[in-house]
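Sequence only, no structure available. Ideas?
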Amino acid sequence: MTAQIVDKPWGKEIILTTSDLPYTSKILKIDAGHRLSLQYHDQKLETLCLISGEVNIIWGKDVNSLITEKMLPQTGYTITPGTIHRFEALTDCQLFESSTGEIGTTHRLQDDANRPDETEEIRNSPNRGWSEK
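Reply:
I predicted one. C-alpha cells follow.
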C-alpha cells in the first residue's frame, strides 16, 4: 500500500494504513509556526510520539484548565476521547500517531483555517474538506 498524503493548513498527514483496518497509523508533518485545531474527539483514542523537531502539546479536560507542555522525544502522549488538545510547532516537526480508526467527529473549538468539525462525510472528501484559497 502506498501512503496517502493529505494536505493540511498546518502541513500534511501521511496516512500509513488502509481505512478498512480497526486502527490508524500516520505521520503528522507540522510546519514551524503552525498549529492544529484546538479540538477534541468524541470517539477516537490516540497516542502520539515526537519523531523530530520541537512542538508544544496544549491539552486538558476543559478550555479553562489547559496546560502547555513541550513534547519530549521517544515519549508517548495518549489523548482519550473528550480531551481537548492542540499541537503547536516551534520548528518543523514530525509526530507519529497511532489511534483507533478514523471514527466519530473531531470537534474544532478553534481553527486557524476556519474549518468546520470533521465528520465522517467531510473525512471522506478530498483533503478532508480543506482546500487552499
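The two ends are 31 Å apart (CA to CA).
Hope that gets you unstuck.
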